[in-house]
Structure formats: structure tokens, C-alpha cells
Amino acid sequence: MKYVDLTDMIDYRPYLSYLEKIKEKLPQSAREYATKKDHWDFSSDYCPHDYWLESINFNDINDCENFSLKLQFTSGKYRLEFYYEKVINYSFEVKNFMDDFKMLGSQIVIDEITIDEHNENVIVHEIALIYGSFVIKCSNMKAEWTEII
């Protein structure tokens, strides 16, 4: 994480200051997700904290213009899906790969959306999980919640 401090307790205040400065530069759907009031209320169903990783889907992986990625998380009550458009780079880190692929089922600790240091048309979505992390660089992303019946 570039702005969120995870050393002792989650301190996202530096990130919120950064977000205030760059929010108008973010694509609308990324801005709506990042600045959603409930995003930072850990008691809200719309806060991504504690959502579990359910699936990862790649689309048009051989087409760099249309390559997209979908991450699906669940809280038991809601499903949260992230859609990434024109993915130019992604990385996954698993803290303990030998221990039953713990990344699947791992919970979100916190996430942040930033603007790439080298290209202001690229956004970076970093998701810290209990057993790993995702970093996705893309042109745009959106988040959708659906109620699980």
C-alpha cells in the first residue's frame, strides 16, 4: 500500500487526503467507488473490508486492447465484483502458497486506488488481503454490489 498504513492498525487517513487531491482525475466509476462514503465505514455492508475472494476471471487475455479482469468477492449477504478495463499490468502475491492456496477465500483488509506515477491515464487498484494482495493497472474500473438471495 502506498498511502494506507497497515503496520499496527489500519490508518487510511493519509490515503483519504491523497484521494481528495486526485479524485477529479479518476474516471467516474473508479471515483464513485473510491469516494463512496460507506467504503470507509467498517460496519457497512458496502465496505469491502472482510469480503472473501471468490473468483478471478480473465477475458480477452490475448487482446491487449480489450483484456479485462473481474475479481469477485462475497460477504455472505452481498457479492462485490470489480471489473477492470484495458488492463495493462496485474500482479498477485500469495503470502503462503504452500498452505492450501489460502488466497482463495482470503479476506480483503483494505484497498486503495491511485494514479500511476508514470502515466496519469492509468489507475492502480491495490487490494490488501489477509494472505496476499492484488495490484491491477488499467484505464478504468468499476465496482458492483449485488444482493445474494
Figure out the total of helices: 2
The domain tally reads 1
Structural class: mainly beta
Outline type: globular
Structural write-up:
This protein has 149 residues and is mainly beta. It has one domain (13-147). The protein has two helices and eight strands. It has helices spanning 13-22, 28-35; strands at 52-59, 68-74, 78-85, 89-94, 108-115, 123-129, 132-138, 140-147. The chain has a four-stranded antiparallel beta sheet with strand order 1-2-3-8. The chain is globular, with a radius of gyration of 15 Å. The model has no long low-confidence stretch (mean pLDDT 82).
Which features characterize this protein?
four-stranded antiparallel beta sheet, mainly beta, 149 residues
Spell out the blueprint of helices and strands.
Elements: H1 13-22, H2 28-35, E1 52-59, E2 68-74, E3 78-85, E4 89-94, E5 108-115, E6 123-129, E7 132-138, E8 140-147
Antiparallel strand pairs: 1-2, 2-3, 3-8, 4-7, 5-6, 6-7
